[in-house]
């Protein structure tokens, strides 16, 4: 197999993937039924009364209200969540499902903890780093790159 | 999503069990299948290069989300397969796709507040499969269970190998 045939195939597949990266964003509403933080920031009032599901970082917790900061595409929206309690601490991440009410408030039906505190994020990245390193070591114990053909070859033939 | 280590361990467990009945499925092929499990995690490239940065550079809407979907897994499995010798393409594609699917399925079983996983069958259908809400991704129990199962499978596999 000529190297250029493989290059053409890889380029075609990458271009298709790039196409999906654009297509998925253009047609976003078809794949995720809820407004994201950018939508809420742009035209909050048009979503009032609708069901929403947002991810947000907890900023403060009071007796009857959880303050969160939802983020998407670089836009941040502060929201107050009522009608639910959470085990998350400030700095943790929660998922909120409920009805959007006026004045930056969600009447929650369900609040799920994604990260109970900001430290949990480090645990996940730590475990993932161990996984990545272990995988690379394991992979290149069995496979090597043949510099003549630029293919991956089994080490033991 | 579950962490990368958990994602890698799931196809290791399943493929090692399957290797008992499939002669060619040895360690080096199992490792290839494990690689596929990392594909949906590539969506985290967002941490390195933000989507907004790409959008600003190219001037078009852009999201990495397809990496964590069936479409992304199939395309990257193709790209990875082509990196191998021609005679291995079919096998590599199958194994890598399998690994990617295990990650998508595992992630599709985590908790979503509205009871529905993301549309990970993109771009084939916008249907959001119901999730059994088995776990949240930050729960270390998931990794502990995966590590325990992988360890058990590895020990049994070694015994069988030694017995042959």
From TrEMBL, chain A:
Residue ranges crossing the lipid bilayer per the database entry: 122-140
Record's keyword terms, sorted: Membrane, Transmembrane, Transmembrane helix
Annotated InterPro entries: NA-bd_OB-fold (IPR012340), OB_2TM (IPR058927)
SUPFAM superfamilies referenced in this protein's UniProt entry, alphabetically: Nucleic acid-binding proteins
Pfam family, one: OB_2TM_halo
Protein name, UniProt field: Uncharacterized protein
Annotated source species: Haloarcula vallismortis ATCC 29715
TrEMBL record, chain B:
Transmembrane intervals: 67-85, 92-113, 133-156
Single annotated GO MF: hydrolase activity
Name used for this protein in its record: Putative membrane-bound metal-dependent hydrolase
Record keywords: Hydrolase, Membrane, Transmembrane, Transmembrane helix
Source taxon at top rank: Archaea
Species assigned in the record: Haloarcula vallismortis ATCC 29715
């Amino acid at each position: 197999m000529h190297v250029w045939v493989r290059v053409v195939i890889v380029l075609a597949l990458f271009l298709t993937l790039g196409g999906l990266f654009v297509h998925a964003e253009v047609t976003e509403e078809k794949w995720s039924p809820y407004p994201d933080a950018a939508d809420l920031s742009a035209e909050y009032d048009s979503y009032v009364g609708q069901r929403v599901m947002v991810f947000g970082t907890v900023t403060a917790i009071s007796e009857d209200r959880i303050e969160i900061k939802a983020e998407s595409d670089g836009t941040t929206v502060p929201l107050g969540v009522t009608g639910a309690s959470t085990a998350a601490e400030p700095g943790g991440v929660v998922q909120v499902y409920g009805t959007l009410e006026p004045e930056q408030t969600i009447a929650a039906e369900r609040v799920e903890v994604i990260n109970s505190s900001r430290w949990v994020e480090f645990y996940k990245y730590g475990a993932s780093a161990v996984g990545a390193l272990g995988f690379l070591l394991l992979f290149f114990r069995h496979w090597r790159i043949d510099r003549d053909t630029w293919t991956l070859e089994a080490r033991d033939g | 999503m579950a962490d990368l280590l958990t994602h890698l361990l799931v196809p290791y467990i399943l493929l090692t069990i399957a290797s008992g009945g499939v002669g060619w499925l040895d360690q080096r092929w199992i490792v290839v299948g494990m690689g596929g499990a990392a594909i949906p995690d590539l969506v985290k490239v967002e941490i390195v290069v933000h989507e907004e940065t790409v959008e600003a550079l190219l001037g078009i809407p852009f999201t990495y989300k397809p990496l964590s979907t069936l479409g992304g897994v199939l395309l990257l499995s193709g790209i990875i397969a082509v990196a191998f010798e021609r005679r291995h393409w079919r096998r590599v594609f199958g194994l890598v796709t399998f690994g990617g699917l295990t990650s998508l399925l595992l992630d599709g079983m985590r908790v979503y507040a509205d009871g529905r996983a993301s549309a990970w069958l993109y771009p084939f259908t916008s249907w959001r499969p119901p999730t059994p809400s088995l776990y949240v991704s930050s729960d270390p129990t998931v990794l502990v269970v995966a590590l325990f199962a992988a360890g058990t499978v590895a020990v049994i596999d070694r015994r069988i190998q030694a017995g042959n």
